[in-house]
Design brief:
- Helix content is 48%, strand content 14%.
- By secondary structure, it is α/β, with parallel strands linked by helices.
- The protein has a single domain, classed as 3-Layer(aba) Sandwich (Rossmann fold), CATH 3.40.50.
- The strands form two sheets. The chain has a five-stranded parallel β-sheet, with helices on both faces. The protein has a two-stranded antiparallel sheet with strand order 5-6.
- A hairpin with a 4-residue loop joins strand 5 and strand 6.
- The longest helix is centred in the last third of the chain and has 24 residues, at 163-186.
- The two termini are 29 Å apart.
- The chain binds P1-(5'-adenosyl)-P5-(5'-guanosyl) pentaphosphate and magnesium ion.
- Magnesium ion is lined by residues 17-18, 36.
Length: 226
Amino acid sequence: MAKLFRAAIMGPPGSGKGTISERIAQSFGLQYLSSGHFLREAIAANTEAGVLVKSYVERSVLVPDPVMTTLMLPRLEQLSNHSWLLDGFPRTLAQAQALDSICQLDLVISLNIPYETLKERLSDRWIHPASGRVYNMGFNPPRVQGRDDISGEPLIQHDDDKPEALMARLRHYKDVAKPVIDLYKSQGILHSFSGTETDRIWPYISSLLSSKISTQPSNTCQTPTH
Ligand code: G5P
Ligand code: MG
């Protein structure tokens, strides 16, 4: 049986977590779990959790830790025989500790992307609100300008992607992420990548994963006793 492998990807809004995660999932067969995706799914389905988190996600403010761990940990428990990649979780020290209590990660990727690059990317970003599909007018444009590829519905731009709001979000990200990054550094599993282009960073991430996935014994995940 193939060894299990558990990884997480961290980085500020717009750093390329989603883009890189999709490449990792495709190239290495890891199950891809995105916290943002689960939140948007809950909001679209109007579940109890969805109603609770809507105003946070719409303002790009962090959802409270207990809500996030309740959303994420049961999904991971169900995947105890799978290799997976987490995108956007854990984001705070409390979330990292909650995750640590059920499962030790094998590897954490941290993306360091300059502010100017993030600003350019996010101000070029358009979203299909119903599905959460994201387009970038330069890097990943829709087939028809201003329209979602699948539904043909209009795309919108978030207020949070305007420069002033973005600066505050990025500052907040740094403060909250620092203890999480320190934790994974102390465990010897943190790998940081810096650059302005996903396509240039990707070969380094890909070769790191190739070496880790084929050679390392995995850490173990346990189903917690509640
Ligand atoms: P999300 O959904 O995790 P964010 O804000 O962290 O959202 P986002 O926007 O999803 O991050 P990303 O995944 O890091 O960004 O980046 P991406 O989508 O791949 O790339 C960004 C854009 O740049 C895209 O348009 C892409 O095509 C383009 N791009 C990528 N690479 C390049 C390149 O090389 N060049 C160019 N030109 N473009 C490129 O979280 C959403 C909300 O959910 C809540 C929070 O409210 C959060 O704000 N949330 C949580 N709250 C608490 N705890 C958690 N763990 C939470 N997780 C989510
Ligand atoms: Mg994302």
